[in-house]
Design a protein that fits this description.
With about 170 residues, this protein is an alpha+beta fold. Among the domains are: about 1-50, no CATH class; about 110-170, no CATH class. It is about 30% helix and about 15% strand. The chain has helices at about 10-20, 25-35, 95-110, 150-155, 160-170, and strands at about 60, 70, 75-80, 85-90, 120-125, 130, 135-140, 145-150. A two-stranded antiparallel ribbon has the order 1-2. A two-stranded antiparallel sheet has the order 3-4. It has a two-stranded antiparallel ribbon with strand order 5-6.
């Protein structure tokens, strides 16, 4: 049996990949394709591997429907790991709600006049702040409501803020 010291970096990484221990993160694929077959070919090459325990077995709450689901029902980053070694969740919305939201969004865009995106520096119609970042399409169900700034998009996307946003609108 070959000692681990006798394997090249490439052989070790290929073995991890073959066993399904490598995430599908693009950086890992690039690393595999760019490694030389022996360590001597690239003596000054520096690289890091993210070691992970995969997706947690815990159940987590969806921020949209408020139901508890196994962690595998949520999207996860492929290159971010929590303190306890599991892949971090990239979104607090379960896959079912994400699919539903995507369908609503697609329908809203096809049902309404989206119009051109506001230029950088325009004022957000919702919060009346000048915005120089990316503009987001705002919709309610299948109705397109207009373009909003990133701050408003984030606060509206956080379903826990639903009551806060409604009160703010009533106060205006």
């Amino acid at each position: 049996m070959k000692s681990i010291k006798n394997y090249s970096n490439k052989e070790l990484l290929e073995e991890l990949h073959k066993r399904g221990k490598f995430t599908n993160f693009r950086g890992n694929r690039d690393l595999l394709s760019n490694l030389s077959s022996t360590d001597e070919d690239a003596p000054n090459e520096n690289w890091r591997i993210i070691i992970t325990r995969g997706i947690s077995e815990d159940t987590q709450e969806c921020s949209r429907c408020r139901k508890m689901y196994p962690a595998k029902e949520f999207p996860h980053y492929q290159s971010r790991v929590s303190r306890n070694g599991f892949l971090q969740r990239s979104n607090a919305v379960c896959k079912r709600c994400s699919a539903e939201h995507k369908n609503e969004f697609t329908e809203a865009i096809s049902n309404g006049d989206v119009g051109p995106k506001p230029p950088r520096g325009s004022v957000c119609s919702d919060c009346e702040r000048k915005w120089t970042g990316n503009w987001h399409r705002h919709h309610q169900g299948d109705k397109f409501l207009g373009w909003i700034c990133g701050h408003c998009n984030m606060s509206k996307s956080d379903h826990r803020n639903k009551g806060v946003m409604e009160k703010r609108k009533q106060a205006k």
